[in-house]
Design a protein that fits this description.
alpha+beta; Glutaredoxin; 5 strands; 64% helix; elongated; disulfide bond; signal; DSBA-like_thioredoxin_dom; isomerase activity; oxidoreductase
Length: 246
């Protein structure tokens, strides 16, 4: 026991000394890092930019995965109206509200694109989020399909200048009558359970892929929030088309 005790004490002292040296080494390293960052603060900006880029790439990858998982619901729902070439090689999915002023601004841009680019198809999804008026307009628009005039009423609603949150059922009927729809039949058809379910399904789909407002567009595997300028839209379509090229 007398032989072991000195050895144990020696070992403890060595361990203590090693720990102290390690602590000093860490403190010295921390001091050098601190001094470097003080002298080179631009490194912090570069780190923040790198982190932001990494997080953006991760979000983009996640969004692409979600879009891919919901491909058929987004781009192949037989109940959705389509602008442009039904067999186009690039699909633009627009979630819009019939009362949304930005959606109305976007409408001529989409019309111009399908006229100038024969390879584009635009899928239209009624996302009624602005209140009772937009809900009524969406129901009537979908009901117009029964008369083969969805796109006609859609164009008329997009061109209407009624201020946001002031669209009434009477005004929607007036617009519909103006483009030749049977408004009595339209009103009956707008009450169908199928239309209610379709609107609910569209809201759920928008939430799933991260669209919270209108307009929201899906082009290729990318989700775009807000109205796009003609140039931005054309570039997004070109990028989606290039991504398909082997």
């Amino acid at each position: 026991m007398r032989t072991i005790l000195p050895a144990l004490l020696t070992s403890c002292l060595l361990l203590s000394s090693t720990a102290t040296q390690a602590a000093r080494s860490v403190d010295d390293f921390d001091a050098r890092i601190h001094a470097y960052l003080i002298n080179h603060p631009e490194v912090l900006t570069e780190m923040q930019q790198a982190l932001a880029a990494k997080q953006a790439a991760e979000r983009e990858a996640q969004t692409r995965a979600i879009v891919a998982a919901n491909h058929d619901a987004l781009m192949a729902d037989a109940g959705d109206a389509v602008l442009g070439n039904p067999k186009g090689d690039v699909t633009v999915v627009e979630f819009f509200d019939d009362e949304c002023p930005y959606c109305k601004m976007m409408a001529p841009t989409l019309e111009a694109v399908v006229k100038t680019d024969p390879g584009v198809r635009v899928v239209l999804k009624e996302l009624a989020v602005l209140g009772p008026g937009s809900e009524i307009a969406a129901r009537y628009a979908l009901a117009a399909q029964q008369q083969g005039k969805y796109l006609v009423l859609h164009a008329a609603l997009m061109a209407d200048k009624t201020p946001e949150h002031q669209l009434t059922e009477a005004r929607v009927k007036e617009i519909a009558a103006g483009v030749g729809l049977d408004t009595a039949r339209l009103e009956r058809d707008s009450q169908s359970a199928d239309i209610v379910v379709r609107l609910q399904r569209t809201r759920a789909l928008a939430q799933t892929i991260g669209i919270r407002g209108t307009p929201g567009l899906v082009i290729g595997g990318t989700v775009h929030s807000g109205a796009m300028t003609p140039d931005t839209l054309v570039k997004a379509i070109a990028a989606a088309r290039a991504a398909k090229t082997p």
